[in-house]
Amino acid sequence: MAHKASLSQSNPVQNESNNNVLEGLPRRMKFKCTFSATISDTFKKRGWIDADDYKEDWDIYFCDMNQMRDLFTSSSRALEEHQRIGHFRNNFEISRKNFMVRNLKRLKARIERAFGKDEGKKCMFFPQTFVLPTEERWFLTEFRYKPGAFWIIKPAAGAQGRGIFIFGNIKEYYNWRIKLEGNSQTQVQNLSPQQQQSYQQYVLERLKISPNDLKKEEGIGIEPKSSSDIVELDPEIHDVHDPLFTPSMDDLLLTHDYDPSKTESSKNNNIYVIQQYIANPYLIGGRKFDIRFFVLVTSFTPLKAWMYREGFARFSAGQYSLESLQDVYIHLTNVAIQRTAEDYNPEKGSKWSLRNLRQYLTARHGHLIVQNLMNNIDNIIIRTLQSVHQLVIQDRHCFEVYGFDVLIDDCVKPWLLEVNCSPSFSPSNEEDYKLKCSIIDDTVNVLDVEGRQIVF
Question: Which of 1, 182, 211, 220 could cross-link to 188 by cystine, CB 3.0-4.6 Å?
């Protein structure tokens, strides 16, 4: 996708019925789009027309996940041979954070068994991760083993930085758990003192935390009891669901005395991942950043993928510091958050092009180090796609543009943060608009829906 072919535009037909094409002239291509104007602008520049008035008569459909599910489950007819839709059915295997980590752990285990641990180490490009609630016990054990480490909690299906929490001591985690189960601090405070004491005692016992741990003033972490407390999980067999994740606050409010043994545990639909926070990110001008790479997948079986050579780095608005862990303008780089900062410049945005970033890194570290960095990022993308290539449902009508978010630490080591199945194509400035139009344009070239490429 890096080099766009010079393709001649066919002259569109000015007057065309819904289903008939004038003999001897090319068919007018139609698209459907539920997202930003960037996508529709790109198609219109190619001479395509919006298919809103043609109902099911379209060639490419950029839709959201709900529309995709409706199309495959409730559509009155099968897709035509020429139609392409911009999602795979179960892309959550790679885009949901808990599934992504599970699949990467399984891939690492398979590679280690087949080729040895040295080869398996090449899959260690994501932070140590646990899934809540199922792996909470193992997280708490690891927390005790790593005093001084910082951790970040993310909703497994969250986006745009919503619901993220960073902490460094057990009391902060305990308070987060209280708020999660109570839905709000007010609800917890409205409990009677006896209810609060019963509930807190239950949570402490469930987390295996002693009251003395909570009394440590500004304590960072807890010393491990012994090295035998550390348990290494086998990702191939560890898929056990822990039935306990603390009861709902509704149960507490219905009883004067909370007795965990008499209360049925309610399943919590909010799944979270908790990762060791990369506390030593690479900084430019004292600010943290991550990099967005765009990857087009046209098939998972066999695996066929294209990586766009351009991308961008997203910067935080504030100077990086571990003193203010809840300051989203320091620790998060999402554009949806940074554009609300007081000093945000809408014309410049908070981005650098990938080309400019590479030039900066090359000037500081040299060509070999930067080339090694990019090779490692290529490995991250390939291994991540390989981890799901037998899980994602293959359909010749489907394609998908993924957004891979990668963080670089101060040792110039890349870390995979997440994979987005619906990366935003809404531009933040004119340069961003041109980049995203070019990505869509090259996507259409690769898909070759117009049948312009000659196959020998």
Answer: 182
